[in-house]
Amino acid sequence: MAKTNKPLDYKYATSVINYDKSKTFKKLSEKNDCSVRAIATAVGVEYDEAHEYIRDVFKRVVRRGCTNMVKTCIQLKGEEQEIAGKSFEFKYVPRQHIRNEYKLYGEYIYRNKTVKSFIKDYTQGTYLVFVANHVFTVVDGMLIDNNGEEYRPTRKVIDAVKVEVKEDKAQLDFLEELEPVKRAARG
């Protein structure tokens, strides 16, 4: 049985992404790269591969951050994307699904979910979660973000995009190549 994460379980992006392998991170002295880290951790690729993808597809400028990321994800909805042999799709989470309903003096009001309530409600799947001037990843209820961000569970979620990773094409090709060998061995 798979271990389920507790609400607000946390993992540093630096523990998921191997920056020692990254030539781009060191060479460019990157900052404002939360979009690169979020894509790398959501798709499960190296920093350099995610950096190139964000630069080409989202038109990110080095050390400047990524503007209009949600808008671009919506435009790419339904189109299969690929980074280093890993295919994935973006699926926008409608804003009414990231709001909580409260009853106040007999009237119902709606407010954006906090990071904590988003994680509580979305315990399965991989999401890019957008808060003010920042994006991070939530994978099966586990928050993956930069150092120091784990102590901010009351930030309001502005938008969310589900990232559905397909099978690894390189691995599938390798398994297809092995199939004749397996049949011959069974013989």
Question: Could you please describe the fold and organization of this structure?
Answer:
The model has no long low-confidence stretch (mean pLDDT 80). It is globular, with a radius of gyration of 19 Å. A hairpin with a 2-residue loop joins β7 (134-139) and β8 (142-145). Strands 1-8-7-6-9-3-2 form a 7-stranded mixed beta sheet. Strands 4-5 form a two-stranded antiparallel sheet. The protein has 187 residues and is of the alpha+beta class. It has one domain (9-186). The protein contains 7 helices and 9 strands, in the order βαααααββββαββββα.
Short description:
The protein has 187 residues and is of the alpha+beta class. The chain is built from seven helices and nine strands; from the N terminus they run βαααααββββαββββα. The strands form two sheets. The chain has a seven-stranded mixed β-sheet. Strands 4-5 form a two-stranded antiparallel ribbon.
Mean pLDDT metric: 80
Global structural class: alpha+beta
Summed up, the domain count is 1
Distance between the termini: 35 Å
What is the succession of H and E elements? EHHHHHEEEEHEEEEH
Query: What would the principal axes of the Cα set say about the shape?
Result: globular
